[in-house]
Automatic annotation (TrEMBL):
Signal peptide: none annotated. This is Deoxyribodipyrimidine photo-lyase. Residues 18-148 form the Photolyase/cryptochrome alpha/beta domain. Transmembrane segments: none annotated. It comes from Oceanidesulfovibrio marinus. The lineage of its organism: Bacteria, Pseudomonadati, Thermodesulfobacteriota, Desulfovibrionia, Desulfovibrionales.
């Protein structure tokens, strides 16, 4: 059974006479997907067929072919997995707020099940779709181990305030999910044939940021990466703040695109053979507490991508230091082209642009230096978010918006001793980085990565 606390009723009403539809838009997987499982449960209860619907929007924030390509290649694999369970995968194109209701009406659907999402654009989709159809709409949180609405009903101040709430509930939710069954009722509705190559080629998105070749999309690759991390890197996770140590999981893109369930990752790490207990605790802190804090922040803070979301103490200290002289001020192009005076910052930017990935420690340094080298926190937020969303595989995500707001605006942080420009916002420095890892080695590695990429020739 699926815990009813994962399910939120977006719209009530009497079910229709047709199939149950699951509108997939965040949790792009056939395994460990509570939205999909709930849809099948309702379909079996009603004795109806079911189908999964995905609507490909022509644009999504600052996503390029890098992100769209990764997503679609993963979805192709998921569609095949669903077909093995006699569940068709329907691909629509256009504005989800229009196309999903249209398909609901055409299919005579009984019920619509969909994914929980904390982002403003997705909340708008859910609101508009619910207004434009007459059947019940169920939203299911398969993104979080402890569902966002269950963990807290308010914006949490910091990790220390949400952590005990999550830990108290973890034993109730850290449980093995049921398997998806072969669906016994045959779907007879219209299922447009999907030419995946043509779908990718036909996208009218920015192709100046190419797809990556170092990471394979899809559920199988995600499971493989999780297994490799547990076998090779989990015990070294305590060294994750060293960008040269290769002690990270590389699971973030899979978690972002919903190709891997965070519950599956947490269960796998918790059940793994003997390993370092402190490393396990640190990984679960990042996977569960920090990720769920990010969803909490974006869900309860509609202006999560603006300086307006900063806590009052941060707004005040930034106002107090607004007139501080900046030794360096760069325009958006200089940031994007990695042309600052700081070789460490440039190396981080090159890593992100060339590979779609930036090491976590460097993401903090990167964002804080943007604050230091722009005229206003508003400018810093806009530049950091655009670059993150355009180049990172895992951009356009609650984690990204929250991390940038933490770095630039003190969200989920505390006041620190006063410094020029930063005020009481926590600062990071080149000398501080040098004390933590081999900066020269990192810069050299990122320069080599850049020189092997198509960007170095532009």
């Amino acid at each position: 059974m699926i815990d009813a606390r994962r399910i939120h009723l977006l719209k009530n009403g009497a079910p229709g006479n047709g199939p149950v539809l699951y509108w997939m838009h965040r949790d792009h997987r056939a395994r460990d997907n509570f939205g999909l499982l709930h849809a099948q449960s309702k379909a079996l209860e009603l004795g109806r067929p079911m189908a999964v619907v995905y609507c490909l929007a022509s644009t999504f924030l600052d996503a390029t072919i890098r992100q769209f390509g990764f997503l679609l290649r993963g979805l192709e694999e998921t569609a095949k997995a669903l077909a093995q369970k006699s569940i068709p995968f329907v691909v629509l194109s256009g504005n989800p707020a229009e196309e999903v209701p249209r398909y609901v009406r055409e299919s005579g659907a009984a019920l619509l099940v969909t994914d929980f999402d904390s982002l403003r654009i997705k909340r708008g989709w859910l609101r508009d779709v619910s207004k434009n159809i007459d059947i019940p709409v169920h939203e299911v949180d398969s993104r979080n181990v402890v569902p966002c609405r269950v963990a807290s009903d308010k914006r949490e101040y910091a990790a220390r305030t949400i952590r005990p709430k999550i830990h108290r509930l973890l034993p109730e939710f850290l449980l093995e999910p049921p398997d998806l069954a072969d669906h016994p009722h045959i779907y007879t509705g219209h299922v447009p044939e999907t030419d995946w190559s043509a779908l990718r080629e036909g996208l009218r998105v920015d192709r100046d940021v190419p797809e990556v070749d170092w990471l394979t999309p899809g559920e199988d690759a995600a499971a493989g990466m999780l297994g490799a991390f547990i076998q090779h890197n989990l015990d070294r996770y305590g060294s994750r703040n060293d960008p040269n140590a290769e002690a990270v999981s590389h699971l973030s893109p899979y978690l972002h695109f919903g190709m891997l369930s965070p519950l599956r990752a947490a269960l796998a790490v918790s059940k793994a053979a003997k390993h370092d207990a402190e490393a396990e605790e640190s990984f679960l802190e990042e996977l569960v507490v920090r990720r769920e804090l990010a969803d909490n922040f974006c869900f309860h803070t509609p202006d999560y991508d603006s300086a307006d979301c900063f806590p009052d103490w941060a707004k005040q200290t930034q106002a107090d230091h607004a007139g501080d002289e900046r030794e360096y001020v760069y325009d958006p192009d200089a940031f994007e082209q990695a042309k600052t005076h700081d070789p460490l910052w440039n190396a981080a930017q090159k890593q992100m642009v060339a590979s779609g990935y930036m090491h976590g420690y460097m993401r903090m340094y990167w964002a804080k230096k943007i604050l230091e080298w722009t005229k206003t926190p508003q400018d810093a937020m806009a530049i950091a978010i655009r670059l993150n969303d355009r180049y990172e595989l895992d951009g356009r995500d609650a984690n990204g918006y929250t991390g940038i707001a933490w770095s630039i605006g003190g969200v989920h942080d505390r006041a620190w001793p006063q410094r020029p420009v930063f005020g009481k916002i926590r600062s990071m420095t080149y000398s501080g980085a040098k004390s933590k890892f081999d900066v020269k080695a990192y810069i050299a590695a990122m320069d080599a990565l850049w020189n092997d990429s198509p960007f170095s020739k532009r």
